[in-house]
Write a structure and sequence with these properties.
The chain is 73% helix and 0% strand. It contains 17 helices and no strands.
Length: 315
């Protein structure tokens, strides 16, 4: 029987960890006793944030030479290797991290990092083998918001991998799980309803159904306009731009995407692709180059970085 512990690695927590090169242990090295080289790990993370991937990798390998079972060193090594495009080698370290994870929270983190590794290669099915384990554990622990966030994250991986049916399944699971959370506050319900309409709009756009996509865009806007989740503001122009791009209105796509978060590599990648559609290859190259400034190990970079590297190598 599965133990009933709560793994409260929310999407926000995960994204914070991956933006800082992903996967510090949930507890400090001193408290777990797993990492005698915490200072070196921090140095490696700083190098990774600065885009000095070879230097970061050298530091992590130095740690592993002395502490072969260092959980954070294996996870960080996997992250950096993914950013370098060395996916098979990355996964040997992430598999080791899953095996030796000292706490349930660490294991969940390693599983999600492995799932994200497969996102870099647009492999929805492989990502699902790992992320679904965290989802099921959260469901068993009755951490329904956490389960919803894991499901949504996996759904986005599947969407951008081109597996639209699987993406829809996981978006639906995420929405349904979150709405079953006891004592869900009205603003939280609005947030999850906004995310569900947002997802349905993108799915419809990818399926070429412009009318259906626009219906869900308007529904998402109506929920946002209630004013209960003002921090979702950047996701409105992103949605409008995404739908416009995939339904062939590239000028609207450009206008709206430029209102979105200009530090988001996925949005920058969409802008680059939009410029290509509009015939401006110089601007496309400029935006692909901006994508490479990100060293995050998350969905926004998993799809943007490999594409940018491919496009820049061919120009």
């Amino acid at each position: 029987m599965m133990p009933h512990f709560k793994i409260r690695l929310t999407l926000g927590t995960l994204l914070l960890s991956v933006v800082t090169a992903s996967a510090q242990p949930a507890s400090s090295p001193a408290s777990t006793g797993q990492d005698p080289a915490a200072d070196l790990i921090r140095q490696g993370q700083q190098k990774a944030r600065e885009g000095q991937h070879d230097e970061a990798l050298a530091i992590y390998r130095q740690v592993l030479a002395k502490s072969p079972d260092s959980f954070p060193a294996h996870v960080q090594t996997g992250v950096v290797l993914d950013l370098k495009g060395q996916y098979a080698e990355a996964r040997t370290h992430l598999a080791k991290a899953i095996e030796i994870a000292p706490t349930p929270e660490n294991k969940a983190q390693a599983l999600r990092t492995m799932a994200m590794s497969y996102a870099f290669e647009r492999k929805c099915g492989d990502a699902a083998r790992y992320a679904s384990q965290v989802y099921e554990t959260n469901i068993a622990a009755k951490d329904l918001i956490g389960a919803g966030e894991v499901a949504n994250e996996l759904a986005r991986v599947c969407l951008e991998s081109g597996d639209l049916d699987e993406a829809e399944k996981w978006y639906r699971r995420g929405h349904e799980a979150a709405l079953q959370e006891p004592n869900l506050k009205p603003d939280q319900k609005d947030l999850w309803d906004f995310r569900w309409e947002h997802a349905q709009a993108r799915l419809a756009a990818r399926r070429g159904n412009k009318v259906e996509a626009q219906k869900h865009v308007e529904a998402a806007k109506a929920i946002f306009d209630k004013g209960t989740n003002a921090n979702q503001a950047p996701f409105v122009p992103y949605l409008v731009g995404y739908v416009a791009f995939y339904t062939g209105d590239h000028q609207t796509a450009l206008t709206e995407l430029q209102k979105g978060n200009q530090n988001d590599p996925f949005i920058l990648s969409l802008i680059a692709q939009t410029y290509e559609k509009l015939g401006d290859n110089a601007k496309a190259k400029e935006y692909y180059q901006k994508v490479l400034n990100s060293n995050a190990h998350n969905p926004t970079n998993a799809f943007a970085r490999p594409l940018a590297k491919q496009k820049l190598s061919s120009k």
